[in-house]
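Q&A log
Question type: sequence-to-structure
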Amino acid sequence: MNEQKLAELLPIYGEMLFPMSGADKAFVELKGGFDKQVLILLCEGSDNAETDTLLQKMMGACQLQSHDYKVASAKPSGVLEAIQYYQPETVLLFGLPLESPVFDAQKEKYKPFRFAGRRFLLGDALTNIAASAELKSALWVNGLKPLFDIA
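Response status: OK
Response body:
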């Protein structure tokens, strides 16, 4: 059989064929909408009133409202799973690595990059950022401003 006929016979699926049940997920949805397809993943245990206020201020400075971004808490093993589940355009990882047993992005924190058609920004846990003026500055100047193209 020639390759052209073979290609006609092999359907390619883009949707998730086996959706995960709530019990199978290695991440937990916390709040927000997803209008602008921004996914913010926090390390487990870093969601509290102080970090929530910081996150709202940061996203407000980026001209994003709560309905524009989804906030979820994840285990390190659940980062790629959450990205696969939500299919975001932009991913902010706070206190979480972008890696798996077979893949490691090895990218600098607070320096945006593109990978697999998505924009990424890695940072320290929000609890650490909230406690450090230096980390807040690095996140804003080196990370969020270039990521969201803010002058």
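Response note: The radius of gyration is 17 Å.
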